[in-house]
Amino acid sequence: MLNEYYTVQKEGADEIIIQKSRFIGHIRRVETEEEAQSFIQEIKKKHHDATHNCSAYTIGEHDHIQKANDDGEPSRTAGIPILEVLLKKNLKDTVAVVTRYFGGIKLGAGGLIRAYSTATSQAIQKTGIVKRMLMQGMSIAVGYPLLGKIKNMLETSDYILDSIQYLEDVTFTVFVPKGEETAFKEWMTNVTSDQATITTTKTAYVEQEVHR
């Protein structure tokens, strides 16, 4: 499993007009090639009256599944430009479909490449990018006198405070970057004067919105 990678928010779309042609970019996060193909067919059905529904996707930790489809546009003027945007932005597990309603003005090969690239980029920007980080869950149980101190320290740290349970003791659930578990335990032991019960919980990907 990758320690971190970029992908898109769950789903989104955006539209641009170029020389009277409508280009509608559709984006979705997927985990399998079957999910990607299903999304493409879903968009084709929704926009069955469109001139073209061009698509591309990249799936897998090392982008081992990559496909691009021009859907009737001149070769390498639509699907490949869409795929190149996904790869340039280092996105994984992402499918993009750009729907075109022809406006009567031909754009030429260069114009088509720019149009499909721009439509894809804008749809991604509208959808949003997230950074998924593989983190280790940690449970910290302390007595109530330490509640305020620990809560404040966790909220102002680089660790991710996921939840607080108020039971017999106060239990904090925190996500710590993989490889930093020992340092976190030592820090928590020191700040609580060894008054905390620290256990590991689940490993999970935690998402953080990225602005770029």
Give a verbal description of the structure.
- The structure is a single chain.
- This protein is an alpha+beta fold.
- It has two domains: 4-127, Ribosomal Protein S5, domain 2 (2-Layer Sandwich); 131-210, Alpha-Beta Plaits.
- The chain contains five helices and ten strands, in the order E-E-E-H-E-E-H-E-H-E-H-E-E-H-E.
- The protein has helices at 33-46, 79-88, 108-127, 147-155, 181-191, and strands at 4-8, 11-18, 21-29, 52-59, 65-69, 94-101, 129-142, 160-166, 170-177, 197-210.
- The strands form two sheets. Strands 1, 7, 8, 9 and 10 form a five-stranded antiparallel β-sheet that branches. Strands 2-3-6-4-5 form a five-stranded antiparallel β-sheet, sandwiched between helices.
- Strand 2 (11-18) and strand 3 (21-29) form a beta hairpin.
- Helix 2 (79-88) packs across helix 3 (108-127).
- The longest helix has 20 residues, at 108-127.
- The protein is elongated and about 75 Å long.
- The two termini are 24 Å apart.
